[in-house]
Each structure stands twice: as structure tokens, then as C-alpha cells.
Backbone:
């Protein structure tokens, strides 16, 4: 499950650099990427290699990445790529022309995110049973919630942006609270945790194989 980029990318999920050799292969067209040419990557967090050694880069030609950006969950702009500031001016201009700038793409990105969120919500409401939604949240270590609307909102958020990591201060569950994500845990037996953030750390949202086989939309 690919997640959508937010305005900031604290995990450096998307990277741009000059190819260090001719050995990398584009995951879009399966051809080699020439040394010293621009290449873009999306980090893979879920492969066997990634789980053992840490996130791995999956490289693309710029045009191949641009054609596949929605499938890769990229709705950002050129400046969002980690390493953008290290490029020469000519290549920065090229990426801005293809992916836009923070000003030009902000409205477009929000519109695309809203459209994607509503698509997820509609499909979940029509096709997925509430007990399956609960299983998905539990499988990904998310806070249990009740009520169809709350379940759909929670799973939609995870599908679009990734599953929420635990609170960094008390290891409690984070939940969305209108404008930010707040912790629902306790620091001590008598003290509630008041941690909140607009940019929570996330991880890949995993779908169990049994559920994936039953529901095509997942």
C-alpha cells in the first residue's frame, strides 16, 4: 500500500540524485539509468530486504517517475524530493517544470488528495465490513475505534498517508483531532499525555494476504 505525500516528507521517502553508476535499473521501464543522469526514488519499507536491512531505494528515470507518480503516492512538488537543493540550477528548473513548485502545486495537490480520500471512503463504505476494518487497524497497531464512520475515517487516513507510529513521548496511540494528531495515552498512571503534532511519523499500511484476496480494492 503506497501512501500519499504530505507537504513535508520527514522520512525522506522520495529522493533525487545523480546516478552514481550505470548499475541501477528503472522500476518503471526496466532499463538501466545512465551514470550522472538524474534519477528519482521511492523508498520501499516492506520488502524482505527492507525489513532486514532498512528502507531501500527503488530508482526511476525522471519521466518514468512522472508518469507513475499517482501510483507511487507522490502528489508533491519538485522541492519535496530529498536532495533537490543539491542539484544544479538547470536540473532544478527541469524538475520544477515537470512537478511544479510549492506555490503552483499546493492547490492541485490538495484537490488530488481530497479526491483520493473520498474515493477510499466511498469504496470502504460500499465494500468492506466493519469487522474487517477493525482487523486492519489492529493488524497495523492502530487505536481501536467504534462506529462505522470512525472506522472508515481511521482506515482511510492510514490507506492514504500510512499507518501512525506510536506517540514518541509515551508510546500511546495517536488519533486525528480536527486540526492535528493528538496522543490518547498516559505518561504516568495519573498524568495524561498531551503530545500533539501535524506531521506524525508513519509507516507502511499493511494488508493481510487473506483480506487482500477477498477485497480487490485493497
Residues:
Amino acid at each position: 500500500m503506497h501512501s500519499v505525500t504530505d507537504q513535508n516528507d520527514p522520512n525522506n521517502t522520495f529522493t533525487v540524485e545523480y546516478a552514481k553508476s550505470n548499475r541501477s535499473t528503472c522500476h518503471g521501464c526496466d532499463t538501466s539509468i545512465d551514470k550522472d543522469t538524474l534519477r528519482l526514488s521511492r523508498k520501499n519499507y516492506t520488502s524482505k530486504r527492507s525489513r532486514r536491512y532498512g528502507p531501500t531505494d527503488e530508482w526511476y528515470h525522471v519521466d518514468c517517475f512522472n508518469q507513475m507518480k499517482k501510483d507511487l503516492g507522490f502528489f508533491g512538488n519538485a522541492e519535496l524530493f530529498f536532495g533537490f537543493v543539491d542539484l544544479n540550477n538547470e536540473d532544478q528548473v527541469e524538475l520544477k517544470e515537470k512537478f511544479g513548485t510549492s506555490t503552483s502545486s499546493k492547490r492541485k495537490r490538495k484537490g488530488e488528495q481530497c479526491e483520493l480520500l473520498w474515493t477510499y471512503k466511498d469504496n470502504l463504505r460500499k465494500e468492506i465490513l466493519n469487522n474487517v476494518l477493525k482487523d486492519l487497524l489492529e493488524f497495523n497497531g492502530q487505536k481501536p475505534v467504534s462506529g462505522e464512520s470512525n472506522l472508515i475515517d481511521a482506515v482511510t487516513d492510514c490507506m492514504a498517508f500510512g499507518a501512525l507510529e506510536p506517540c514518541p513521548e509515551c508510546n500511546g496511540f495517536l488519533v486525528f483531532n480536527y486540526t492535528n494528531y493528538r496522543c490518547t495515552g498516559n505518561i504516568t498512571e495519573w498524568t495524561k499525555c498531551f503530545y500533539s503534532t501535524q506531521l506524525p511519523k508513519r509507516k507502511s499500511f499493511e494488508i493481510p494476504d487473506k483480506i487482500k484476496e477477498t477485497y480487490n480494492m485493497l
